[in-house]
Amino acid sequence: MKATARAHTNIALIKYWxxxxxxxxxxxxxxxxxTLDGFYTTTTVEFRNDLTNDIFYLxxxxxxxxxxQRVTQFLDLIRQLAGKHIFAEVRSTNHVPTAAGxxxxxxxxxxxxxxxxxxxxLSLNDKALSRLTRRGSGSACRSIYGGFAEWQKGEKxxxxxxxxxxxxxxxxxxxxxxxxxxxxxxxKVSSRVGMKRTVDTSPFFKGWVDSIPxxxxxxxxxxSERDFEKVGSxxxxxxxxxxxxxxxxxxxxxxxxxxxxTVMQHVQKLRDxxxxxxxxxxxxxxxxVLYLPENEADIKRELESIPGVRDVILSKAGQxxxxx
Length: 324
What we know:
The chain is an alpha+beta fold. Helices cover 37% and strands 25% of the residues. Strand 5 and strand 6 (61-62) form a beta hairpin. The longest helix is centred in the middle third of the chain and has 21 residues, at 205-225. 47% of the residues are buried.
């Protein structure tokens, strides 16, 4: 009863920010992402009769506290689906900076869902696996697929119609992402806490949700047409609207550092030089820059020249779940 799976992170081009149901992790809006090949989690799950509780190792360290609780609660969902009560040893290796705005929970829970369900004997199709993965981390449901994927918020209260669907596969379009690493510390306001505070208190939140359908329509048209300017400009504007909602929360907060603004300004200057580049930022200070392969050298040189930038990691479109 053992399996190993690898899942890649995804970067949301149309952001998920806000839940209508905290327990089932049901979003207030659809979101759309690109899976990245440069960041991933590899997880092995082994269900063993000799264990009296779950064990979780992350990067060879035995984990306790809230991260452990999230993993064991997710394993409970897998056990419930399988109708089995047996504990597991989980070993994960993260090739993602944890809790620094690089969606490590997305690749982590997608890999856990895939390895755990296979190890216990479940045979889930991609839709069912995405629906299950959502219960661990919302954005993780999109990491089941390579390339572009859309998480459909669904309408049903039980969440049965809330899962991700593929839009375009990994090899459809060679669009690239430069991850600009500014800081690797854990966030002061976690995504979950920040999201709830925004939903509950920000007067800007309703406007954010109301704007999503048009953003989705435009970016999907841009993807279909392989129109980089359209995709990039919609993604950048959507990101700025999401972060604006946090400034309206009570108490207000932001995930950005001074260097975050500096990187954003440099990306805009690249466009002034007729080098197409657009930024997007998840719930963290680090910036992701969308670009095309022919501009890679110029983009990398510009980003690495910015004081305070620790690293620039280049990614192509990534694949979906793989079993090792």
